Every structure is written in C-alpha cells, then in structure tokens.
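WARN  no MSA supplied for this record, continuing single-sequence
INFO  ligand: magnesium ion
INFO  echoing inputs
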Amino acid sequence: MKYPTLQDAELKGRKVFLRADLNVPLQNGRIADDTRIKAVLPTIKYILDHGASLMIASHMGRPDGIENPELSLAPVADRLSELLDKKVLFAPDCIGARVNTLAASLNPGDILLLENLRFHPEEKKGDLDFARKLGLNADIYVNDAFGTSHRSHASMVGVPEILGRGYAGLLVQKELKVFEKMLSFPARPFALLLGGAKVSDKIPVIENLLPRLNHLMIGGGMAFTFMKEMGLNVGTSLLELDRLGAARKILDDAEKYGVDIHLPVDIVVAPSTVRPELAEVVPSDAIPDKKAGLDIGPGTVAEFTKIIRKSCTVVWNGPMGVFEIAPFDKGTIGIARALAEATGDGTITVVGGGDSVRAVVESGLLNKISFVSTGGGASLKLLQGNKLPALTALRGGRR
Ligand code: ADP
Ligand code: MG
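INFO  complex generated
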C-alpha cells in the first residue's frame, strides 16, 4: 500500500499540523527517556528546512479526557527546544482562541507545541468537530505517530479527513518500509518467535504469517495451550481452554505448510510468581500438578537460539516468561541476547510489541537489533495483515 509521503508535500510558506508521538515516560515531572522526541526530529527538521511553520500535537499518558497538569506536554516543549537549539512555543491547550492566536503568529521556521490532545474526550472518540478545531490553523497534515496509527482518533483520522489528505512522516515511512519488506519478501529461512500471555492475541499474527514461515517458535504463557493440546500436563500454568481447538488448527496448518513448530523442551516452574525462590527447571513433559510454568528453561533457550542462528529473518513478539519478576526473566533475556548475536552475524531481526520491546530495552540491546518497532499495537496490527486506519486516512476520501 502506498501512502502520500512528506516528500510529496508542497511545504513552502505553509502551516503544518504534525501529529507526533511524544508520549515520553515522566518521572517527577522530568523526562525519563527522550527516545520518542528524538525519533521525530528528522521530520521536524525536514518540515522547517522546507520553509513551513509547524504545529505539533501529541498525546501523553492516559488523562481520560480530563485536564491533568501532571500529564502536560510542557516539559516536552523544553526538551524539544534544547534538542533543536531553537525556541519552541507552547500552547496551553490544543484547540481554542489562544491556540488560534498563537498559530496565526507563526512564521516559516517557527514551532508551536500544542497541549495534550487527550485532555479532551473527543480525541479518543474520533470526533469530527474536534478534528475541525484541531485542523483550523493548518494547511497540511503530517502523521509521524506510527505507534498510534492503529487508532481512529480525531488527530489521527479526523484531521486528515478535514484537510482532504495527509502525508506520512519520515518515522512512519521507516516503520512501514521494514514491515512491508519483511511481510512480502522475507530473507529465508524466516522464523517467527511468539510469547506473551495469550494465544488469542496472537492467533491472527500466526494465521497471517504461517504460510510464509519456515519456523514457528512458541514460548511464554501461550505455549501451555499448545502443550496441553499435545497431551502434556501443564500444572497450573496459564491455559486458554477455549483455544485448544485454535492451537490444534495451527499445529495442523503448520504441517500442511511445512513449517517447523518448536515448543519449549524445558520449563521454569514455581508454585506462583510470589515464590521465585522455589523456581526450578523441569522437562516440559514433567510439569508438576500444583506448579505453574513461568519461563522457558535454559534447554529451550539453547534450542530456540539454534533456530534463530540459522534463520535469516526473525520476528519476535511476546516475552518468553513473566519477565517482570526475576528469575522468570532469564528466558526472555537469553532470547534477546540470541537475537542480538544473530543480528551481528547478518540476520534481520525485528521486535514488535510493547512488553517485548521493553524487555529488549531493559537488556540494553536496543541498538543490537535490526529494527525495534516504536509502535506496539500498530506493529501487531501490521503483523496480523491489517491496514492502519490513520494511514488509510492520509489518502483522502471518507472513512
Ligand atoms: P507484547 O506486549 O510484547 O505484545 P504480551 O502483552 O503479549 O507481549 O505479553 C506480555 C505478558 O506476558 C507479560 O506481562 C508477561 O508477564 C506475560 N507472560 C509471559 N510468559 C508468561 C507465563 N509463562 N505465564 C504468565 N504470564 C506470562
Ligand atoms: Mg503487552
């Protein structure tokens, strides 16, 4: 699918409404990590260098439609100003008379950051009247908020609709390019590594990718539904009884398509996550009745590592265990390391999904993976073969 890109836009002398994802983590009112701000700098610079003025809009946290000073974008305006070495105006709201006055004062090269879009309940509702107020001062709409592009919010879908069309920013283009290439012409062998809590979340991803895969590795909580279906005892591990049929179908389809399925050969079990000191490794066919599988074991890490090392493209979504709690993070960290090493040897590695990306960041391996998607939900939608509504909206026409 082709979308209009920023490079297609006539920017000179225009006012641009840039929807960015500046939803940075804050700690005591300070920015704890400015990765997301840095990620949109190329688009911001491109727009300013081409003679336009800029209004930037973003959400921050979950204010639930109510103004909340703790979720103000004001600290982002300061950081943006530092990073660009340039004055950044800040508007106390994202719509209204004050914004309109500030917007009218903008000259080419000027930047105005608008306050948190989600202080207004209309944003999440995709309200067109609200979108009209947002777009009131702009000639051109640019979307560089890849991570929000699966949402039909007013600033994502409504504003381009009001302005007739929109353009994909540089970050969005970069994300799309990776996913498009990977989904259409993956370098083979192509392996998918899935984990996380729920089978139900991942079924659409498997269904979309299975015909193209060479290897499917399954770890995390979702593995137990597959193991149960194969006749193994899973103790008190996470289990989706209503997905046993879906698991069976995936196992059968894999055989039909000639995809090798790899399930854990050993499991770290414990009575529960609150007794980490009782964690022990057991073979997958020997999970005790009263224990839960909370991570893949070292034997599984070794097996999965072998598959990763002989693959040319590996996509990973979903942690291998309850990585939030040590020692159940070992499997996830081991896999993150295996991916990093494979990347060093030329394998294309892609990580998508909020928790998986967090695991990679926490392991300090962010820069050692070919591509870490900034969009959890949005990247999952692409892996499922879905279109993103905010990108469709760029092409104009009604929803
Ligand atoms: P992502 O955000 O990367 O898409 P998910 O949201 O699907 O990943 O899954 C992440 C969650 O899965 C984590 O909170 C993790 O604790 C949980 N999880 C992983 N393995 C297990 C397991 N064996 N038992 C229970 N929960 C698990
Ligand atoms: Mg998640």
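The chain has 15 helices and 17 strands.
INFO  checksum written, moving to next record
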